[in-house]
TrEMBL record:
<protein>
    <submittedName>
        <fullName>DNA-binding protein</fullName>
    </submittedName>
</protein>
<dbReference type="InterPro" id="IPR010982">
    <property type="entry name" value="Lambda_DNA-bd_dom_sf"/>
</dbReference>
<dbReference type="GO" id="GO:0003677">
    <property type="term" value="F:DNA binding"/>
</dbReference>
<keyword id="KW-0238">DNA-binding</keyword>
Length: 141
């Protein structure tokens, strides 16, 4: 699906959830009450509500604050946020003292050596991944 269409769906849903009618005039009025820059036009509000455009970050933050929704969720959706949180959780749970010590040492290496170490690690990861085509007797090594 197109990102403008998805944004429009999230904006419309947030307006309904917050108890507002989904209308360009309502959006224009409520946004301009909270925005300290140049007011948006009814056409700009219409564009946001009809998959024509996505507001810039500063305006998106005002919309999110007004509608009481996280700006990243309004802009990118709940799925993206959950994915980022899952990756962060996996990283935090999977990295202990030894790994952090290794990462610190790795970061102190010159770029050519970091590149070499990265290639070695990725090669090992590929060979030992569950979906690799390595023979069963090598998988346990």
């Amino acid at each position: 699906m197109d990102e403008k269409i998805e944004f429009t769906h999230r904006l419309r849903a947030a307006m309904v959830q917050a108890g507002y009618a989904v209308s360009p005039s309502v959006l224009e009025h409520e946004f301009n009450l909270r925005w300290y820059g140049q007011p948006i036009s009814n056409q700009a509000a219409w564009g946001w509500l009809n998959s024509r455009s996505i507001p810039k970050q500063d305006k998106l933050q005002v919309l999110a604050e007004w509608l009481k929704i996280e700006p990243e969720v309004l802009r990118f959706g709940e799925t993206v946020r959950k994915s980022v949180q899952e990756q962060r959780r996996r990283w935090e749970e999977g990295v202990g003292y030894l790994e952090r010590e290794t990462f610190d040492a790795f970061l102190q290496l010159p770029a050519p050596q970091r590149k070499l170490i990265r290639e070695v690690i990725l090669t090992f990861a590929k060979v030992h991944s569950p979906d690799s085509s390595a023979p069963a007797d090598q998988a346990g090594d």
